[in-house]
């Protein structure tokens, strides 16, 4: 039921916008009562946050990644991650997710914070853990110059893609 509700909510948010979508419309589209909707998902903002976090969770590195035994394996893991990240962030659903989050950022900054917490922060943490394990396995030197350069490039690339999406929807992010 929750999956059906979130699917209906996301569809309506994309079609009508967050502000233009009511919980009654979501319940009707999902073929559930409003009572079931609130019991399963919560309020409209919780639905949007769940839609955002559900999509960004797909962009994470798998937690069961092995400790890289060599630079070539590290490069292979990073290449697979970069390929997956680019496929995810350029997917129309992800762009629609970013648009929803950006559109609500001024009224509900916690939605943008949820996007940051569910998207960029875990990705950064996963890369940090990967490089730490590579360093522990002596795949990279203690400074990790090469790996840190790759990590910085990946983070910058992700940030650049997010800024491009921001520009596409006419939103200028503010700096903290």
- Secondary structure category: mainly alpha
Shape: elongated
The beta-strand count equals: 0
Average pLDDT over all residues: 77
Tally of individual domains: 2
Largest sheet: none
Q: How much of the polypeptide forms β-strand, as a percent range? A: under 5%
- Counting DSSP H or I runs of 4 or more residues, the number of helices is 8
3D structure, described in words:
It is built from 8 helices and no strands. The model has no long low-confidence stretch (mean pLDDT 77). Helix 1 (2-16) packs across helix 2, helix 4 (44-56) packs parallel to helix 7 and helix 6 (92-104) crosses helix 7 (109-136). The radius of gyration is 19 Å and the shape is elongated. The chain has 176 residues and is mainly α. The protein has 2 domains: 2-42, Arc Repressor Mutant, subunit A; 53-168.
Which descriptors apply to this entry?
8 helices; Arc Repressor Mutant, subunit A; mainly alpha; single chain; 176 residues
Short description:
The chain has 176 residues and is mainly α. It is 72% helix and 0% strand. The longest helix has 28 residues, at 109-136.
Strand and helix map with partners:
Blueprint (H helix, E strand, L loop, with lengths): L1 H15 L6 H8 L3 H7 L3 H13 L14 H19 L2 H13 L4 H28 L8 H24 L8
Helix pairs in contact: 1-2, 1-4, 4-6, 4-7, 5-8, 6-7, 7-8
């Amino acid at each position: 039921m929750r999956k059906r509700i979130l699917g209906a909510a996301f569809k309506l948010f994309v079609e009508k916008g967050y502000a233009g979508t009511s919980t009654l419309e979501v319940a009707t589209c999902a073929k559930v009562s409003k009572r079931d909707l609130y019991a399963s998902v919560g309020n409209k903002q919780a639905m949007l946050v769940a839609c955002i976090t559900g999509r960004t969770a797909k962009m994470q590195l798998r937690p069961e990644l092995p400790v890289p035994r060599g630079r070539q394996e590290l490069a292979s893991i990073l290449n697979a991650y970069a390929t997956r990240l680019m496929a995810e962030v350029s997917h129309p659903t992800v762009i629609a997710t970013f648009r929803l989050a950006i559109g609500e950022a001024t009224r509900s900054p916690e939605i943008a914070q949820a996007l940051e917490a569910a998207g960029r922060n875990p990705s950064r943490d996963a890369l940090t853990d990967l490089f730490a394990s590579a360093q522990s396995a002596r795949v990279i030197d203690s400074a990790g110059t090469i790996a840190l350069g790759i990590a910085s490039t990946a983070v910058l690339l992700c940030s650049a893609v997010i800024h491009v999406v921001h520009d596409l929807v006419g939103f200028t992010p503010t700096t903290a």
